[in-house]
Protein 1
Amino acid sequence: MKTIIGFAVAAIAFGLLALAPFYLDAYGIGLLIGMTGYVTLASAWGLFSGRTGYVSLATVAFFGIGAYAVAALNETLPYPVILLVAAGIGLVVALIVGLATLRLAGVYFVIFTFGLAELIRQLVTWFETTVTGTLGRYIFLPLGPEHIYWQLLALCAVTLLITWWVDRSRLGMALRVIADDEVVASHIGIDIARTKIALFVISAVLITLVGAIQAPRWTYVEPAIVFNPTVSFLTLIMALLGGAARLWGPALGAIPLFILFEWLSANFPNHYSILLGLLFIVIVFLLPRGVVGLLERLRAPSAPLDQAAGTSAPAQGKAASQEVRG
Amino acid sequence: MTPLVSLRGLTRRFGGLTAVNGLSFDIVEGEVVGLLGPNGSGKTTALNMISGALKPSAGEISLRGEAIGGLSPHRVARKGVARTFQLVRILPSLTVIDNVVAALAFRSAPLWGDAARAEAEALLARVGLAGRGHEAAVQLTYIDQKRVELARALATKPSLLLLDEWLAGLNPTELRTGIDLIGSLRDGGMTILLVEHVMDAVRALCGRCIVMNAGTRIADGETGAVLKDPEVIRAYLGTDHA
Ligand SMILES: Nc1ncnc2c1ncn2[C@@H]1O[C@H](COP(=O)(O)OP(=O)(O)OP(=O)(O)O)[C@@H](O)[C@H]1O
Ligand SMILES: [Mg+2]
């Protein structure tokens, strides 16, 4: 019953949001595109990082792959095919990265993912300058801002649906067990590596699609624009603020922060980065379990601690490092 | 008749230390075998190799004739080997019933949803936790956490159950209950390898005992005879159990 009401409310909310372009000017639609993009990025990020405790800074790597794939292919393939190809590239890269990072834990994973985004940016830059001889690419697609917005909104709904499904599925159970105790997880038959890679791939493909769908917003694309590391940091901080391990947590963090960032960059363009850093620190200090975690704690102060949000992750690292002999 | 599990020359070194050294034995289906030995003699290390938690440095393990030595724990678990841990390991953020459902969900014939909950309730009842599924696993007493761990191991539908001092740390009443519980598993035909220091339990439950000392097997036979073996008594001398 609760589920049905939840679905009904969500469906109405998304329905109303879909009508927004009919009442808004170009600037308003632009804001909604940015916001929906970040809600989707943060939710997709939380799907992996919030549930495994592996803090990824690879968001922009996949976002950029999606955007750049559209830039590179927009004159050769029909648009839906481009989206499929972009998703496919994201999937393959995520699989490779997932397999390569299996043995990295904690800060090593964070550094690897950060390095990955930079590496991919440099590779694309190198390829463009030395092989194709271009510095950037133009995107000419007959898509109005409202089309981009509707696609993003649909992707956002799909992301939330997938997250909802994961949390109820055996995959979600596997994640909770892994977060609790990797030794127990493996001894009851859970393939830890496969579980984590599956989730990483799902998350990465969704992130790639955000980049691909948003790409036509820029008519001119170059690696420095679409592989901007700020995207990774913003996504992370939004998800953490809201509560990365919860269905609605990342959205709850993304909406106010997006509005705040817009306001900051409009009013304090020179101090934007400093303010961003400060905010980052404040959030991690005050709300390590996110807003949703805070609400839950207020509601049920004695309840056993549930799964940790992104930052307090190493619950699982700790268990994993304990000797099996006990 | 092929044994259910068979160890051949199983060896594990940690740096210069050989914790298990050329261990060989067979267990046939339905046997309850005690694995004894003083502290540090390599019992847990042997169990860890059988369950896949540690890779053997040398030697073979086979389950129904199929080599399983060196496989990762989830593979071994799905082939029908379940275990409990010397220091109890429950899943602290899950409820009692979810601790068991988690194991049902990933065995080779998985259960999920209502079927899993019903089966989990039945398993909890079997270990003496009927109707306590909704409780938080961390808030249970020590013996009840051990019960959860046992129910979780049983949930994987094991053909071989490895118990690492499952009875340690229980008071006399709890011990009685615990022995009866394992006895009921034995009567149900479960094959069990039981690492245990509590000799009353060993006598009550195990028809056969294997004794290790410093990584090697020093005795293997009928429990009464093994416990009288002078070499076994010597190995145990100076340790605090009888
Ligand atoms: N992961 C490990 N790394 C290094 N040495 C280890 C490791 N595990 C066990 N050992 C060593 O191997 C030897 C055997 O240990 P093991 O835990 O198997 O003994 P045990 O027979 O289970 O003892 P107890 O009765 O105290 O549980 C000990 O000397 C122990 O210190
Ligand atoms: Mg031991």
Protein 2
Amino acid sequence: MAVQIKVNGKDHVVDVEEEMPLLWVLRDELGLKGTKFGCGVAYCGACTVHVNGQPLRSCTVPVAAMQGQEVTTIEGLADTSEGSGELHPVQQAWIEAQVPQCGYCQSGMIMAVAALLERNPNPTDEEVEAEISNVCRCGTYQRIRDAVGTLTNA
Amino acid sequence: MGTVAKWTRRTFIGAGALVGGGLILGVTASPNRLKLSGEGVAEEGETILNTWVKISPDNQVTAIIPHSEMGQGATTGLAMMLAEEMDADWSKVGFIEAPATDDFANNELGRAVLVGEVNVPGSIFKMIDFGMLTVAQQLNFQITGGSLSIRSTGEFGMRRAGASARHMLIGAAANDWGVPSTELTAKNSVVSHAGTGKSATYGELASAAAQLEPPMQPTLKDPKTFELIGTTQPRFDIPSKVDGSAEFGIDVEQEGMLYAAIRQAPVYGGKVKSVDESAIAGRRGVKKVVVIDGESVGPIQTALGSQSIESGVAVVADSYWRAEQALANLPIEWDGDAANVSDATIAASYKDVLDAGEGKADVKKGDVEQSVDGGTVVEAEYAVPFLAHATMEPLNCTARVSGGKCEVWTGHQNPLGARGFAAKAAGLKETDVTLHNHFMGGGFGRRSEADFVVQSVLVAKEVDAPVKLVWSREEDMKHDRYRPAVSNRMKAVLGGDGKPVTWSNIYTNTGQNEPVDAPWIPYDIDNQLIRGAQHETPVPLGAWRSVGHTQHSFFNESFIDELAHAAGQDPYEYRRDLLAGSPRHKAVLEMAAEQAGWGSAPPAGHARGIALEQSFESIVAQVAEVSIDGNGKPVVHKVTAVIDCGLAVNNGQVVAQVQSGIIYGLTAALYGQINIENGGAVQANFPGEYEMVRLNEAPIMDVHVLNSYAKTGGAGEPGTPPIAGAVANALFVLTGERVRKLPLNQYEFKAKDVRPQLSQAGDWVSPVWVR
Ligand code: FES
Ligand code: FES
């Protein structure tokens, strides 16, 4: 079936099974590899993207449900919020706090945090902890807290 | 192509000129292997010789790093070590990762191992043929593990390369200006002469320097004078890891590439009996079904020992998802021989081996059988379960086999070894295999294994296209090579002062008990007998972050805590009193206690526990502050940690690695457990089965670096071992009951005034891991 989706501001028509998860459409059909596969069961958050600005774990969402929706991936995060060339503030904070280790979880982590701050620019620690349930197997949580702190206490 | 000159056969530092200008300098421990490499890392007009450093006319310094980046930041640290000795301008230093060719094999590591300057895991040692001069070739030795990058390549390679290059650059300026080199200074990639006011950049001097003889014994700086080493520098690899551009193995894309999904035998060592391909005939995108016979390639020698490859079925399709879907609908019948293996049979075998009481002594001194007048006897039995690695990026490997050549793309901790595994699977010579190494989404030991590489090549052999094999999370967890489960019976007799007169223990040892110092204790106890009882288990085993130290640290640091409480003494003071002969350990322990406010009252309902472990030449102490929540589950509020790794090269990165180790070890202590039923693993994915610590459970981590300037130790692993003991010791203070079996989530803890639910002291703790 042909599904029409908008990804990072560009329209795409993909001819795939309607139950193919958005994650695999992004990675293997559209070649956007920044969104990662970690568990396939909506647990780890490595596959987090934004759909109409809301965070979504793309590994369990059939692409058909995305018909006509606006999807933003890590590759499109900066462009959509700051104008091209500039990093998104969350990405910038991530570099300043030297958050990533292996880096594999960080696309999803950054997307989840960016969506949270968009909705709630000054979350409490508890709100951050409740919202950001992504897994980082390298245990970068302390620096994630530090980086988020620089974005909220400004 | 460029020319490389000035190699002499008996030496191990070589240098030469680059066509188009510039200096290339390499360090090797293998003089018989000096040869040129005309491809791979060389850019146009340049030829790289062996490894380590090049200086180009535009004044750029490039370190060529023979290790893979899996998040530990080694590449940046290694480049810092080079730049420090060179007095290079840090803003003009970059790196490239050495490709997996023999020229870049980790000679320095081989030499360090052979001359005994670095204490490495026995798993690595085992692979060494004492043919010293060709060590690297024989071992396919380019491993990132055992926290070795900085300890070996950095200390023996990078620093020497930097010092040699500096010496040659100064020599070139001295010749050019006709002044003695002793009057010259080098700083920020510039050589200058105060008398004449002359100066030149390294880039300007590089070509002339290349004509000089490199010093074979360059003078290294006194570490106390370091200006760059010991600071915190941003990691080279981080910008690509915030915008999605970092390319991991799973992101590889090749022209015409197909995808494979795999199902391995549900019973370890099982085989495929039959496959009903008709069930998936005509499914969209499905190209082929490949039956993988693991035995067909025979056992593979990895750095960790001999490994057999699991059999299974792969479906090849034009998309990974289609391959997985088809596989899910493919009826497969299996033959299995170990189907009767379960937690119960394993527990029984562990009990048998301990009851037999035969063990090989790791430590034997004094007499543990002596009678101690009025001595208090403390006995306990401990157990820890099998653990999966669960790297964030599931295992994957892309391969193409055609025209007598094989090309492989993956993220591997041992890329040269992986090339050898691929060659064996392809039935080709290693020189016919090219391996492209990628960022790893976590390694932790799992990515030093052969299985996923071999399987991907076996599939690629059957298909006329590059094939990317991706293990689902379920395959990754059910077919890991697990950290061994270990049981340990411990006994000590305390003298009149409450201190142990004897310490003895015997633990089950599946042969993965490495490195050799893992079971040792740092405490001054005159009479010790520490033994491992050798036995086998059908469960596949491998190296798990910090290897044997995770198990033994939990046992030993819990048991010494038991002794302190039995003696009615403060657990910190008790340890400290027993460290008179180990000043580094004592200093680390003291600093951790001080930073954690040991001795001051913790917040109401909280308690502190302490633990200490030396691993990979680094010493780490941790104090965990813990409470119990309304559901009887432990909450770890804060962990104070101190590490002495000699001298932390990239200080902030060492801190990050210790934090990482704490979370990895805490996750295991709270939740980690792989159960075995019907010959295979029970746990298949994270939710409710193999839970992870996330932000809401991550403690505040206060990490301090204590630079003792002792021999450089590792940083990637030593943060992991102490945390389980530290948390369990805090729980004892809260509950009055001793946790002797992990993980912690199997218990409902109750604070002291309520009747505890845990097993009583001295009980046999059966290693049947209750879920
Ligand atoms: S891959 Fe989607 S949540 Fe883990
Ligand atoms: S940085 Fe490695 S999983 Fe998060």
Protein 3
Amino acid sequence: MTAISVRNLSKSFGKKRALDEVSLDIKRGEMVALIGASGSGKSTLIRHICGLDTASAGHSNIEILGKLIQESGKLTAEARAIRGRVGVVFQQFNLVNRLSVLSNVLFGNLGRIPAWRGTLGWFSAEEKKAAREALARVGIPEVAWQRASTLSGGQQQRAAIARTLVQRSDILLADEPIASLDPSSARRVMEILAAVNRDQEITCVVSLHQVEYARRYCPRTIALRDGRVVFDGPSSQLTNRMLVELYGSNSEELILPDAPTYPVKPKRAAPVGSAPAFA
Amino acid sequence: MTDTSNTASPRPAPVEIEPNWTRSRGTTICWIALAVLLAWSWGPAEMSNWPHLFTDSGNMAQYAKEFSHPDFSDWRYYAQEMVVTLQIALWGTFLAAALAVPLGVLSARNMAPWYVVQPVRRVMDACRSTHELVFAVLFVVAVGLGPFAGVMALFVHTTGIFAKLFSEAVEAIDARPVEAIRSTGASRIQEVLFGVVPQVMPLWISFTLYRFESNVRAATVLGVIGAGGIGQVLFESIRGFYYPQASAMLIIMLVTVSVLDFVSQQMRKLFL
Ligand SMILES: Nc1ncnc2c1ncn2[C@@H]1O[C@H](COP(=O)(O)OP(=O)(O)OP(=O)(O)O)[C@@H](O)[C@H]1O
Ligand SMILES: [Mg+2]
């Protein structure tokens, strides 16, 4: 069964064509990396899939788990219900700054629990426990009561991931979830995403700037350039030439010692610190 | 989402930045327009009467002399009426704030569609642009003389003000946390409660406290047309030439309002 099906999706912001006739299918249980230079449209694509943005004119549609979430630039009536099944880690984390981290994480429950309870902000003891466990899982159990605004960038990113873990969605879209993490936290987060994908069979789409990580954790990679899909296939087939094409010629630091392809046990992989770093 | 793409794309196209002349020209035009408006209003506002301030100084001195001997013998009564004025302002402000929460959200362009925003805004404009005194006169006729008419007058006018201030705060929020709440499948009300309200609450509280201060002042004036409180007593004593008593009342009002200003300022600092 297809988890995400995008047909003919185009989006323009003024004259800028951020997405250009994008079509893709992602099956249930896949773990897909989304790569591309800055401004290539990764975030825009993710925002369309989760129904936060709507396509520009044209016959486009996006289906989530067989249900239309938007069609030809209009959200469907089911969009709100479908959103609950799609967890999103935003590039800028999007936490509610004035509230505690725990509240932010608990909000992941809103789509699942009865509306009246969510509206009153009554979360059960189990839900609170699950929220704290999620925080522990991403490695920041100690900040539960801190205001979200007081967290460091990396902590915010992980709190946002904890929120999607609590959501227990069928699909997880993560927009550069490791962009502001140190190498060991980055690996930890990627491990969590991989585990969620493996054990709970949650379909994951992860946008990344570190091609290294894409190769190591995601069997499939989709590459965007100027809003168009220019590569869609096994991550192992990504070549250095393709990367130069994607990121431009002045990206030598990117070139990988054409090497370990999926699957490689993370333990044995080259130290992450030496991975190409660019954001 | 990010706007870094232009600078960070592989081969950045040279971007020309044009100097912005329109801005400084606009400023000059604004100053000239202000000067023209002032000149135009000079005659109708009888600004040419300004020397009267000095030629009629004898009257002023007389006033000053009587007012400088305040008579506090009835202070209990004045204080009691002052409290009534505070109570009028309290209820008027509270009701307005409560009603302005939904109305403020409904008249924010980023929260509601235009066919809701526009009608709500027009009604709120009408409430805001009509002075409390006018409402007070209407309510005195409708519900009779006394404090309740004052409460209703403040309530209606202040709702108009709050709806505008509250909605401006809502329009200035960061949309991203709201989107995050939306992405969990939350309902619209939940989006507002958890995404919007936490962001605007400090401003809303600050506006409310600030407006409470000015509503206390407004409530004293409302007393003049019979809407209860110390204003009513004050007006009656001035009309009866009881200047020393009026002076005592003015002092009580001054002290109360100053204390209130101070307290609410401290409280607002707490919330912001
Ligand atoms: N709301 C918007 N208004 C105007 N332009 C936008 C908007 N959102 C995105 N864009 C533009 O669309 C293009 C794609 O942006 P997008 O955020 O999807 O890139 P990205 O691949 O996520 O980049 P990055 O790696 O830097 O996050 C960019 O040129 C961007 O400026
Ligand atoms: Mg992005």
Protein 4
Amino acid sequence: MSRIGSIARRTFLIGSAAIAGGVAFGVYAYKQPVRNPLTDDLAEGEAALTPYVHIDQTGVTLITPRTDFGQGAYSVQAALLAEELDLAWEDIRVDPGPPSPAYYNGKVAAEGFPFPATDTGFVAKNARAFGDVVSKFMGLQITGGSSTVPDAFEKLRVAGATARQVLLEAAAQVTGIAKETLSTKDGSVVLPDGTMLSYSELAPVAAGIQPPREVALKPESEWRYLGKPMTRLDTLGKVTGTAQYGIDMTMPGMVYATVRTNPRLGGDVNGFDATAAETANGVLKVVPVTGGVGVIANNTWRAFQAAEAIEFDWGPAPYPADMEAMWEKVGTSFSKDRKDSRFKNDGDVEAAFESADTVLEAEYRIPYLAHAPLEPMNAVVQLKDGRLDIWTSTQIPIFAMAAAAEVSGLDAENIHLHVQISGGSFGRRLEDDFIRQAVELAQAVEGVPIKMTWSREEDMTHDFPRPMQMARARGVVKDGHVEAYDLGIAAPSVASSQMGRLNQSLPGPDIAIIAGAWDQPFAIPNYRVTGYRVPPLVPVSSWRSVGASGNGFLHDCFLDELIHAAGADPMEERIRLCWHAPSRRVLEAVAEMSNWGNDLGPDRGRGVAFTLSFGVPTAEVVEVTNTPDGIRINKVYVAAEVGKVLDPVNFENQVQGGVVWGLGHAMNCELTYDDGMPEQTNFHDFEGMRLYQCPEIEVRGLETTDDIRGIGEPSVPPAAPALANAIFAATGQRIRELPLNKHIDFV
Amino acid sequence: MKLTVNGNAHDLDVEPDMPLLWALRDELGITGPKYGCGIAMCGACTVHIDGVAVRSCSVQVGDVDGDVTTIEGLGTPDAMHAVQAAWFEHQVAQCGYCQSGQIMQAASLLEENPAPTDEDIDDAMSGNLCRCGTYPRIRAAVKTAAAKLSEG
Ligand code: FES
Ligand code: FES
């Protein structure tokens, strides 16, 4: 890691010096929420190594190191920089930049500690600041955890403001006019007489100026871009077919490839017969790769056809072969020696159960789920004269570099990763498996660029899915209120599975097993959440909203059961139990938006659910009709508190997308395994929501705190429980297993 | 084999059972149509043959008996088709990978039915999957485009 890190630094310096007249500005003054001496020591070295603004003779390029896989990361990063640097929107160019530890994500590790987002005490704050330092040391350049905005909100505005100050100083030096009398406008410094000096003209002088260590940021009242609807920078390309995704990348002389590896993930290849493939039309080469075989051809379809014709003798899966055996493992994990955490333990649940007449009990199950972004995994790789170039989309550029170095045996300075936009990810591109394969294929045809594309079937059956989980819940109600809630959740550890593949280890408990459950702001008198770590089964990974994606369902549905058992109103009782003011406000907001309490009419029902995840309290109300042919989802209301909505249009789009994601998978998606292999292979049996099923989704962003948060994930967790709670309200049927269509039809 | 795409005539030397999608993408370098499933379940590969939306992953190139239009031929960044302009206005795209197929499907719908009802839109557009969940914006953009086109 550190070797890769230092090499990545050097590579960047070479890269930027090569641009004639170029100048790069970085973050020179970065105030920590809690100051740490380590950051003071690092600040000097970092100054030249955290470049976000690059100016050369052709204009300004903003470096946007968080990957854009559809969530609008490039545009929001550009807006933060441009707001302070003063650029015209139509002149903005962005570049993801090279992989570099300088682009560490200070917020992605900050929430990896056992303190709920509602805890703003001294210890919790220090732990989060420590997470920032850990990220900085490890050079964790990661996109994920809805952390792009929280990480960038100050950092990138400071970088933009710093660059602007240097350009003003450069103009003062060039003209001899006092800096204080100069201003900027749309990429130029404006002299008192109205003369404009473009940033490009000033770049050569600016390059020699020492940047200020402290800069003032614009007050919010003067914001020109932030907080207002933006036209995302990628919109035009995406509506005209001119946006180039990783899968569209083309090189002269490029050949096309695909792979097939053991669908029993991690299993061996005992043997294969590729005779038919080798002689198939257009096939150039059949190449053994780790865990399977690659086919290199002169057309992707021909490669697919040939790969399909290979006969394999796959070895067994290194995990139980079918669902029954896996559920057995999960079910027996509710034990003392598999106990992973108990960070929530209020009151005395055992005493409450002993003194109660009736204890409600329920068991819940949720399935494995594939990420299945619409663009299947792919990479273009060229190995030529000891230099490796990789064009692909990844959420983990530095780990991807390390993987390519390991496979190729090359030093990282000879590896060039060009990060592409991608057709979704949802966590899938936190893995480097497909990049390793593409490097192996490129090694087999040195000098020739290859484009490796997975078939949809390969993609669906070689995902690292969201884990299956089981919950065992007990509760007591008293005097019309929820009195005790004891939730045990058993799940395989995403964090240790994923970090293991990146050659890292996970110290301590896995927060993902209980995220979205243990950290909910309810003042239930006796309240306990316990995580149990199931032994590794299928290798698993982060799936949009990670632990909270499933725990939102497990936690909120049983809470809903208890509230109904108490005879209380689902909305009123949640609000009464909620001690956290911002969370209460989102519940009150959806109550008002949905006109909660009015009569919906016959065969209708509504459900509410709440999950605080990634620091964002989110409440959703779903309204359904029980039609003779099945459940129709009529309308969804969402309220989320993010501190500041930076782009209202993209905010709404992301929230709606998260709701569709949450509802669609809850309705009809699961990945099941038989004989060690996933049974679902394409979108015919892993469908999600289709347009005709999509309800109207009304969204409200609350801005009542100063806690700036990201919105890519938080609308996912409450969607499934709000739907299940609505189905209960409309039909009286309490469904405790996903997908819901195992028990009820949808129209 | 002759193939006309976006007004340009091409001579292709490929097996007739190659899906049109892969002839477009890998033989002609036309990458607007996307590969998502290969089995007509997602719509990412949607193009027009004589103005009618088809799944290019499931049409053999040897069976193409009309002029092919891809997203690149529908309109350009400088001169967008009304459907593209509506998509731009509503900022429909998230990852955008499904959107060239969505736009081609919508353009074909409006060509055939300039004033679609909500149900017509549901029927025409439900074969196009969007994993990012942009459906609310797709609906709104189809309506905007329909209104625009009916103005003339
Ligand atoms: S790729 Fe043709 S419909 Fe999915
Ligand atoms: S915008 Fe991503 S799949 Fe539709």
